[in-house]
Every structure is written in C-alpha cells, then in structure tokens.
Design a protein that fits this description.
Elements: E1 5-9, E2 11-13, E3 27-29, H1 32-38, E4 44-48, H2 57-63, E5 66-69, H3 93-108, E6 113-116, H4 118-126, E7 131-132, H5 135-138, E8 154-160, H6 165-170, E9 174-179, E10 184-185, E11 193-197, E12 203-207, E13 214-217, H7 228-241
Parallel strand pairs: 1-4, 1-5, 5-6, 6-13
Antiparallel strand pairs: 2-3, 7-10, 8-9, 8-11, 11-12, 12-13
The protein binds manganese (II) ion (MN).
C-alpha cells in the first residue's frame, strides 16, 4: 500500500531572534515529538517550512495526502482583524499567512487536515473565527492552561461533546489532556463545531463534519503517546489520508 505523504508545518526563528539557538542565523524547526509521533503510523512525514511565496501552495497541497498543523509561536491577531495586545510572546505573522492559505487550499482539494494546539486555533482563524490573544488577561476565572516550567506538562480535564467525530474516535466523554497554550478560540468560525472544552469554557477541540477529517485539538497528543486516545486520533487522520 502507498504510504501517505503528510506535511507538517514548522516554527521559525529569524536571524534577529533572541532565542539562544539562533546565533544570528535564521532557522526553521520542529520538535522531535511530532516526528516520533507520526513515525508510529505508516506514512512519510515531510516538513514544510514557512514560504514567502505562496503561489506553490495549490501544487504542494496536490502532492500531499494530509496536512498536520503543528504548535508553535502565536497566531498573528491581524489575521482576524484585531490589534495585537503587547506582551512577551513571539508572534509568527508569515506562518499565520501561509497556514491560512494552506488550510483553505486543503479544503478546496478535500485533503485531511489535523490541527494541534496553535494548529487548532489556525483552523478557526482561517475560517473567519477569532482568538483570545492571552487567556490570563482576557478570560475571567480561567483555569491554568500553561505551565512555565516545561518539560513538566500542565494537565486539565476536557469534556468531549457527544455525537462529534472526536467523541466517536475516542469513545469517551471526559479526558485528561496536557495544556501548553495562552491563546485559545474566542469567536467560533461559522463552519466549525466545538468538540471539546475545559471547565472554564475554553474551547479545546473543533471539527467540520462536512469533511472526512478536518479536526483540531488544543492539547498536544504528540507528547501523550502513552495515552491510547493520541494514537486513535493519529490513526483516524492517517486512514483518511490513504
Ligand atoms: Mn488547555
């Protein structure tokens, strides 16, 4: 059987970045976890950097069998028409623009799309929704969604909405998930349905059931490999990519 080709989007660190590994040279990067995770299923992972010329996107999407939008730096608020709240977080505007184009093209070509963390937020932004730019500043009585002392992960429960694809794939209505985000979906895009949320009302999962697999989760299944739900999600994505 032909192995599906899965494109994974990447973070970037420009030459001007203060991140220690940059050392004055611009680099694209992705964490090991995504690659180790996707290697668990029979596919070809392909890292897709942020391009400045978006004209090859229809050709790229035509060549791939599935699109995996990974986590990373903040989504650019101007993509949903809001002024950026100043803060200490890094915003990746070029990546935001490219991922919007990728998501819309993947829908046009009916390719499976799986969004993780920032990727889940991107599904909403690409389809006209908005984000909380910073949960602690903008959401009253929010629970903790971010731990500053990584690699120790913060965990919280999510409630899975009945009769959603996520519910069918996971076969449960409550799940303990890791959490490493300070942004989240605010206004839901018209074409999306909420599939999971935390006790403070933060949206933790979305999907569009007019497509075979157009699904996002706010947590990081790629680092929850010991949890059977992570592999269930990945296998469902992959079977739609075949
Ligand atoms: Mn969370």
């Amino acid at each position: 059987m032909k192995k599906p080709l899965i494109a994974l989007t990447m973070d970037q660190s420009p030459a001007t970045d203060s991140r220690i590994f940059s050392k004055g040279v611009g680099i694209y990067f992705i964490t090991y976890d995504y690659i180790r995770h996707i290697e668990k299923v029979d596919c070809i992972p392909m890292m897709l950097p942020t391009l400045h010329d978006l004209s090859p996107i229809p050709a790229i999407v035509a060549r791939i069998d599935g699109l995996l939008l990974t986590g990373g730096d903040d989504v650019d608020a101007s993509a949903y028409g809001e002024a950026i709240i100043p803060g200490q977080w890094r915003i990746d505007a070029p990546r935001t623009g490219m991922e919007v184009a990728l998501i819309l093209e993947a829908r046009r070509q009916k390719k499976p799309v799986y969004g993780i963390c920032r990727g889940c937020q991107m599904l909403n932004v690409a389809l006209g929704g908005t984000l909380y730019q910073d949960i602690p500043q903008q959401v009253e009585k929010a629970i903790q969604h971010h731990s500053s002392n990584k690699p120790q992960w913060h965990y919280h429960d999510v409630r899975i909405v009945q009769d959603t694809l996520l519910n069918r794939l996971l076969g449960q209505e409550r799940l303990s998930v890791n959490s490493s985000h300070h942004q989240a979906i605010k206004e839901l895009a018209p074409d999306l349905q909420v599939s999971a949320s935390s006790s403070d009302g933060i949206i933790e999962g979305v999907e569009d059931n007019r497509f075979r697999f157009f699904l996002g989760v706010q947590w990081h299944p790629e680092t929850m490999d010991d949890d059977s739900t992570s592999l269930a999600l990945l296998n469902a994505f992959l079977s739609c990519c075949r």
